[in-house]
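INFO batch 0412 | record 1 of 1 | parsing
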Amino acid sequence: EVTERVTKRTQSGACLHCHASIIPTYRRVGLESMGRPAGAAELADGFQWEAVMEGFRIMSTMDYNAGHAELLKTPDGTPHERKPLFPGGTPKSGSDTGNVEAHSQQGGEAHPVSCIDCHDPQSLAIRVTRPGFMKGIAALAESGAQVPHIPSIDRWRSGSRTNPYDPNVDASRQEMRTFVCAQCHVEYYCASKETLLFPWGKGVKADEIYEYWNEHRFPDGSEFHDYKHGETGAPLFKAQHPEFELWSQGIHARSGVACADCHMPYERQGAMKVSSHWVRSPLLNINRSCQTCHNVPESELEERVRTIQKRTSDMIELAAAAMTEMLDAVRGAQAAGLDDSSLQPVVELQRQAMWRLDFISSENSLGFHADQEALRVLGESIDFSRRAQAKALQLMAPESSPLPAPSGEVYGVTPKGKAPIPGK
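INFO prediction complete | emitting tokens
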């Protein structure tokens, strides 16, 4: 709240979809918009998906400060704990901190991500609560994309399809042990120009998501893009942190291993077997996270992970170097006077290259979630960068005649008399 990412640039209220326990606020805002009572009793009266979805839609168009102000209006059930957010005084960030300054000392309701965001408060059953995921996974089920790691989608597709795919109804418990993480650890569009969007309408692979974004349009009909490149001016897509999407392409997903199996391994607490809620890297607990399936020494398992991550890191560096040289070539072409129309084929290659590099470099496993897929995507990024670089240089080069075909006979190293006869 006091970082320059928030204080110097207007962020979207949709950020709160994952950075707060936001559902009661979505419910309240939705109920108020629908002209229905939204007191404490009404807020506690079940999940109320219709109101939650309406509040989600409204708050996705707010800026962050307005959305956070709405969050603070929602009672959190602890009226006796209205503590200041910054008891020692608001941290000095060197710039305006918006509504943070206003409520930092007077106190407000706290809404940290907590148990109810993944568990039903009555039964403790795992549940999906985030509207963005509900809409995204339903679109994935409708898409027809191959998702062998989510068997419940195949079952839904072969059923009546009377209702949209609903993970809280249709998914297995093991699938839900991934879905509760995938509510937030995904790629998305998160800004005020339209409702928060998970781009799974064509699938969850990097190239499928690119195709989806490339065809998508903002509600006003304008071309979709996340930002324009600061040097070339190309409209680009920005990958966030597609952990769920990359994991979906890996051997662990195909084998039925969920996020919680590795990041929240089972442990004993008295007579109870529970998932550890100290969510962290599996490398910090290899015995419980890895050796339940892999009967090899810890040192070997760690070396496997480090090798995958080192190879991915090296490929990221190669892709970044190719991208930098591509951008230099594009800037050279622009400096040479080539207009946007002439450079459009180059811009498309730039978009493809930068999307793929960003997809892997912003994903937080350094390739481990799906190592072969990560290297495939990075290899394609290098290819697109080099093609863009070559195209930009070609456009700058003067017209020249093609080289004539070689006229001399081609001799091999095999003596002519001993060469194999074709067809024999």
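INFO post-check: The chain is about 45% helix and 5% strand.
INFO record closed
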